[in-house]
């Protein structure tokens, strides 16, 4: 297509046409935004209740290119041919949530479940599916440990408070000096 140029006149100098703008190459997100980070301490252990649904959920940030779930280090692959998968995983990249759903849960599902997020970096987190009684005992021990730790901290704080003077020592105002220290020699009542 021929470009039309305005005829030059004495009152208007010739202005060359600007070159086309270069495309913006900064359309991708910043690299730090793509870094994968696991939130809320990763996967949490779950109790096994036979016949019920069990859900392992992981929240993350970043842009994982691949998300893989494992049971006892064997990959769990969603099979689209089977419409009645008992164990399957779903991911919502927009919200940064991936879930492994076991429905219904059977006694044989006990084990360690892991999720691996791969992309600019790699993150892995694991949790156990264990019999409900074992899970409850473990939770009880965690509560006892937390209470024990809080008690130790409380006792340490009380010990520190005992070492502090109970009354505030007021600064001297008008004591007579007996020359017991350099400060007292120069102190005038």
Automatic annotation (TrEMBL):
Q: Which SUPFAM superfamilies match?
A: Immunoglobulin (SSF48726)
Q: What is this protein called?
A: Immunoglobulin I-set domain-containing protein
Q: Compositionally biased, Polar residues: which spans? A: 1-14, 171-180
InterPro entries cross-referenced by the UniProt entry = Ig-like_dom_sf, Ig-like_fold, Ig_I-set
Stretch list, region Disordered: 1-20, 161-189
| Source species | Adineta steineri
Q: Which domain of life is it from?
A: Eukaryota
Q: Tell me where in this chain the Immunoglobulin I-set domain is found.
A: 43-120
